Amino acid sequence: MERIAALADAGSVASVDAALAAPRPSPHLARWGIAAQDDDGVALARATMFGAPVMIAAQDERFLGGSAGANHADALRALFERARDERPAAVILLMASGGVRLYEANPAERALARALAALLDLRVAGVRVLALGVGDVFGGASILAFASERIALVPGTKVGLSGPRVIELAHGRGELDAADATAVDALFGAEARAAAGEVDLVADDRDIIRAWIAAGMRDERTFAERVHAMQARLADRWAHRAQRLDPDTPPDDAQPPRPLGALYADARSVDPGNSLWRSNDRPVWITRPIPLRTFGPGEAHALDAALLAQFAGDRRQEEAAVILVEDSPGHEATAAAEALCVAQFLAQHAAVLALLRARGVRLVGFLAGTGHSAAFFSNALQASTVYALRDARVVAMEPPAIARVTRLAPAQLATLIEDDPVLGHPVRHFAAWGGIAEILPEPDRERMLSPASCV
Question: Is 204 in a helix, a strand, or coil?
C-alpha cells in the first residue's frame, strides 16, 4: 500500500470496493505450518494519477515471494473484471512474484490462468494495462507482466519464465550456474532485458515512474494493432535465432498424433509447421501438439503465425471454433529460451487467443496427455471450457520442485503427487477445482463442440 500511495496523486488512494477490500487469507497454508496473510500477498486500490482514475495492484514479495495463490490470483482477476466494467484510464501492476504458489498448485494455476484471460479481455476493451517490476518476476507472473500493454523494470530486478535454479536443476550447471550472479544478471537482469528491447528500464524514482505511466496511458493503439506489431517484433527476433539452428533439423511430421487420429479425421494441415489443422467441411481448427517437444519460442510463434493467417481481418467469426489440444512436457526451460524471452512469446500466444475470442471465435481446450506448467497455462487454459482424457495429468509443479520446498520423504511425495487434491497430478484433482468441464473416455470432437461447451 505504501508503494501505491507513493505513485498515486496525493490523498487519492481508496479501496476498490468492499468485496475486494475484504480479507482473503489462503486456506491452503496451515497444513504447511505457514501463517496466512489477510490480503494473500496482493494489495488492491483505486486512485488517480494526473487526475485520471486508475486501479492498482501491488504484490508483496515479503509474503512467500509474492507468489500467486488461488485467492491472490482471484483478486487480480476480480480487479481486471471490475476495471472492464468501470473503464479507468489504466490498470497498473506493481509486480514482484515468483509465479504460481507451489503450496496450492492446482487451484492457483487455474486461478492465475483466469486472471491472465481477464487481463487480456480488459485490454481488448481498450483499458491500458501497465506492469512495473519492482522486484523479481518469474514463472506465470512473468507471462502476466508481458501480457500487459507495456512492461518496465527498476534497476536490479530480474524477469524470466524459468528461474536460474529451475534451469540448473533441469540441465546442469553447464547450462546455467544459478550461483553465478553475473551470468544470472546477464540472462534475466533488468539492464540486459532492456538492452535486448524486451522491457523498459526506469529508475526507482517516483517522478520518473509516473512519467513512464503517463506515456503508457497516452498510447492509443488498439489491442489488435499491438498484437500484430508484437508478432512482427517476435518474428524478427526468432529469425535471428533460427539462422543459428541446425539446418538439418527435420520438419515436423505432417501426421496427427496416432492416439488422437479421430480428432483430425476430416482435417488437413494449414501451415508449414503442421501446428494447425482445419476441418474440411466446417470452420473448425485443431492445434496439433508434439508430445515430446517443449512449448518454446519457436513453437508458440509458429502457431500464432498460423492462427493470425487463418483469422486475418477484423470481421467477427461466430461460427468458427479452435480446439486447443494440450500434451507437452511443458515450456522450454533453457538458457537459450530465456535469452529469447520465452515469457514474451507465451504472453503473445495468450494475446492471439484473446484476439480470436474477441472476434467471436470459440476456444475449447482439450487436455489429451500432459498439461504442464506455463505451456498449459498460456494455451489450453485460456479457453473458457477445457475437456480432458481420463488418463491426462496436470503438472503445475515438478516433483523435484515440490520436494525442494516441502522437504517430504520420497514415499510421502509420491503419495502426494498421486492422491493430494491440491498438488496431485492426475486430472481428477484439477477437475475438482473447476479446471476441467468434463473428463472424456476418448477424444470426442462433437462433444467438445456441442453448445454445452460454450460456458
Answer: coil
Indicate the pLDDT class of residue 455, thresholds 50, 70 and 90: very low
Q: Kindly report the three-state secondary structure assignment for every residue of 113-169.
A: HHHHHHHHHHHHCCCEEEEEEEEEEECHHHHHHHCCCEEEECCCCEEECCCHHHHHH
Cross-strand bridge partners of residue 276: 287
Number of H helices, E strands in the chain: 18, 16
CATH 3.90.226.10 residue window(s) in the chain: 2-220, 228-453
CA distance 299 to 304: 9
Looking at CATH, the fold of the domain delimited by 2-220 is given as: 2-enoyl-CoA Hydratase; Chain A, domain 1 (3.90.226)
pLDDT tens for each residue of 320-334: 999 999 999 999 999
**pLDDT of 256 over the 90 cut:** no
In order of 100, 159, 176, the CA distances from 339 in angstroms are: 22, 11, 12
What is the phi/psi pair of residue 418, to 5°? -90, -35
Residue 250 has pLDDT above 80, yes or no: no
Q: Is 420 exposed, middle or buried (0-12, 13-18, 19+ CB in 10 A)?
A: middle
pLDDT at 282: 93
Reported as a single tens digit per residue, the pLDDT across 66-93 is 999 999 999 999 999 999 999 999 999 9
Nearest to 57 by CA among 84, 26, 100, 91: 91
CB-CB contact of 453 with 385 (8 Å): yes
CA 250 to chain CA centroid, Å, is 29
Name the band, by pLDDT with cuts 50, 70 and 90, for residue 411: confident
The rounded distance, in Å, linking the Cα atoms of 128 and 334 is: 32
β pairing state of 90-97 and 52-59: parallel
Grid cell listed for 312: 486475418
In terms of Cα–Cα distance, which of 72, 67, 92 is closest to 6? 92
The whole-model pTM stands at 0.95
| Phi, psi for 404 (deg, rounded to 5) | -60, -35
d(CA 198, CA 55): 25
Task: Judge whether residue 169 has pLDDT over 80.
Answer: yes
CA angle 107, 434, 256 (to 5 degrees): 100
Q: Give ∠ CA 373-356-264 in degrees, rounded to 5.
A: 70
Domain covering 228-453, topology: 2-enoyl-CoA Hydratase; Chain A, domain 1 (3.90.226)
97-106 pLDDT tens trace = 999 999 999 9
Instruction: Assess whether pLDDT exceeds 80 at residue 453.
Output: no
